Amino acid sequence: MPRLYFPGGALIGCSAGFVNVPRIKGSHNAMKTGMLAADAAFDALAAGRGGDELVEYQAAYEDSWVYRELKRVRNAKPLLSKFGTTLGGALGLFDMWFQTLFGGVSLFGTMKHGKTDAASTEPADKHRPIVYPKPDGKLSFDKLSSVFVSNTNHAEDQPAHLKLLDPSVPIRVNLPRYGEPARLYCPAGVYEVVYGDEAAKADPRFVINAQNCVHCKTCDIKDPSQNIVWTTPEGGGGPNYPNM
Questions:
Q1: pLDDT surpassing 60 at residue 206
Q2: Is residue 33 within 8 Å of residue 13, measured between CB atoms?
Q3: φ, ψ for residue 219 (rounded to 5)?
Q4: Of 97, 151, 174, 195, whose CA is between 20 and 30 Å from 181?
Q5: Residue 25, SS3?
Q6: Taking Cα atoms as reference points, which of 147, 159, 176 lies closest to residue 238?
Q7: Rounded to an integer, what distance in angstroms lies between the CA atom of residue 37 and that of residue 119?
């Protein structure tokens, strides 16, 4: 069980990974962990321990329904990664059913990922490109139309919150080796490879459209060179789903 507190802070909410992967739901866990941490902080301040670490938050989490819910699904993603969608999904379903009957005991124990998502990215020459049909505007839609629906917005004069440790890596390393996956995995079309000569695929440039970012942080996690750093943008920016 990882430690959820550290000097000056705590791991809380969606960004800390409190997501129920099989249900694709996490907002309830995000809010509850925030409440647990707030209660722990209030109690610490009331007791005059304002500078202490939130040890109580850890204990409260492990005694909460969030911990019990996430413990039951802890092997869902590792099983998918190890055995594939069909077999891994079936084993994950059996594992969750078994744990429900036997109080959280799993036949698989607690599985771990062998390597990070970034390290799992394979060279482009090991795979065939997927040719997707053109969006029909009824059942399938282009990325920018979906970004528009998300109502995302960032002040145009703010510093870009998506940073490159080495600006040369996308074209020098990622493009020839991986086909620059950022242009594919980003759901908002933030990253593009633009060619000076499109027909000959010559003079490529890596373009970052930070205004489109919907704050999923996929780039920070998945970039095979770990060259993209997602930083917190100015307050008030980002997606705003008015109908949720």
A1: yes
A2: yes
A3: -60, -40
A4: 151
A5: strand
A6: 147
A7: 32
